[in-house]
Amino acid sequence: MKKKQTASEPSPDQGQKRRDFLKQTAATGIGLMFVRPESVYGTPANSSLGLGIIGCGGRGNSDGGDFVRNTDVRVTALMDIFDDRLESTRARFDKMADEKGYAKIAGANIFKGWRSYEKLVQSKDVDIVLITSPPYFHPDHFEAAVAANKHVYLEKPVATDVHGCKRVIRAGEKANGKVSIHVGFQKRYSEAYRGLVERVHAGGIGEIGLGQACYYTNDLDRQNKPGMSELEARIRNWVFDRALSGDILVEQNIHIIDVCNWMLKSHPISAMGTGGRRLRRDVGDVWDNFIMTFVYPNDVKVSFNSNQFRNKGYRVQGERFFGLAGVAESHHRGPVRIIGNDAEKSWDSGTEDPLATAVGNKVKVLVDGIKNGKFDNQSAQGAETTLSTILGRTAAYTGREVTWDKLLKTDDRWDLKLNLDALGQNGTVSNVP
Questions:
Q1: Read out DSSP for 34-67?
Q2: Which residues have C-beta within 8 Å of that of residue 94, sequence separation ≥ 6?
Q3: Please, what sign has the CA dihedral across residues 416, 418, 421, 424?
Q4: How far is 98 from 151, CA to CA, in rounded Å?
Q5: Radius of gyration for the chain, computed over Cα atoms and rounded to the nearest angstrom
Q6: CA 86, 90, 91, 93 torsion-angle sign
Q7: How far is 168 from 64, CA to CA, in rounded Å?
Q8: To which H or E segment does residue 389 belong?
Q9: For 63-97, what is each residue's pLDDT tens digit?
Q10: What is the mean pLDDT of residues 228-249?
């Protein structure tokens, strides 16, 4: 008798398509190896790796800090277009270097100007490139880092349009087996999330029939100040700009869609939805809410809702999957568990803070793999999840159902409509050196 295909298993044809799509990343972040902290970095001092940061905003400082706190990596180079960002980030990491007995960042490794990333990736002091620039620029920065034979930590999303995702895939293919590439999906490195996904994949809730997910969060701080030029204000407020960020579904909500893809072992095959700018109209052009339905193989539908406006501190993000044998649920802050139809099938991760160690785990795995010559390549998986969110965004923007196959046949490319060579004409924006 032919084995019944479960909802969490793609059909043979769909599975082959995805295997082709992910051909250079067989593990796709599922088979993670968590290494005990004390077992890593017992290596000679000359194995300490240098980290160059492209984009010295909040995420660059956060991710860079995680590298320094959790590994023996040293921040050795910085790139940004804003002098104040370079100065504050340099001061932060010089202080951390002092505390660890490392040298401060050399003046020759402080790179100013929008094209200065080309110099950073060529620096002999840089082994790993951390890309935390506005997502529109990610393909440019990623291609340059790979061409320079550098290891890469690329923040999500990998791009803001289909064209950019395809560029990342092609560059990643060239890097396969030569350098390590990680993409910033830290939930895949949470022990709690991984325990949940492994149990679901082993049949812990039976055949999956329905998914439910959400990302409700607060508004974000404005970065512009009185007297600032329109050009500088747009760059500093990039999270509110469609072309620079990809919109909230692509830039922020992507974490949730990545868990759905991970859980269901597939990308969505179609999407439909809506949304708009309902309450936040004072800045940029991104939407402040989305209401989506993603359709996965075997007609498993996942409803997804999100917002990004003032909620008086109300933040709820998570995923829930309903199966024949129970329900699996995970929360950004809250329980990660299985509620089984039978009590003995229930499981609880035992934590209400499942992401507490996730980023630390991720950077440890990246650095340890580099040192041991076991190079990960997550570029295709990162592009797959990014394309999944672009699929949803396209459906919501057009008001029509959009299929995965149709999306990939396009080469949609967004126009930033900025004269980047004009950067530097304002006193707080650095000139190209």
A1: ---GGGS--S-GGGPPEEEEE--SHHHHHHHHHH
A2: 104, 105
A3: negative
A4: 25
A5: 21
A6: positive
A7: 22
A8: helix 379-398
A9: 999 999 999 999 999 999 999 999 999 999 999 99
A10: 95
- Cα-based angle 315, 319, 320 (whole degrees, multiple of 5): 130
Between CA 186 and CA 366 the distance in angstroms is: 12
Nearest CA to 319 out of 339, 304, 306 is that of 304
Lowest mean pLDDT among 41-55, 191-205, 226-240: 41-55
Identify the CA nearest to 131 among candidates 66, 76, 60, 67: 60
Q: Counting runs of H as helices and runs of E as strands, what totals does the chain give?
A: 14, 15
User: Please, what is the average pLDDT of the chain?
Assistant: 89
pLDDT classification of 54: cutoffs 50, 70, 90: very high
Residue 71 CA, distance from chain mean position? 20
Cβ atoms of 318 and 330 within 8 Å: the answer is yes
Instruction: Please count the other Cβ atoms lying within 10 Å of the Cβ belonging to residue 352.
Output: 12
Determine how many CB atoms are found less than 10 A away from the CB of residue 122: 13
Find, among 408, 365, 406, the residue nearest to 383 by Cα: 408
Contact (CB, 8 A) for 314 and 306: no
Q: What is the pLDDT of residues 173-199, one digit of tens each?
A: 999 999 999 999 999 999 999 999 999
What's the DSSP call for residue 102? P
Residue 306 backbone phi and psi in degrees, to 5: -150, 160
DSSP letter for 202, please: T
- Tokens describing residue 81: 């277009």
Domains of the chain, CATH where assigned: 17-187 (3.40.50.720), 190-355+382-409 (3.30.360.10)
Distance CA 171, CA 364 (A): 24
335: its two tokens: 């329980």
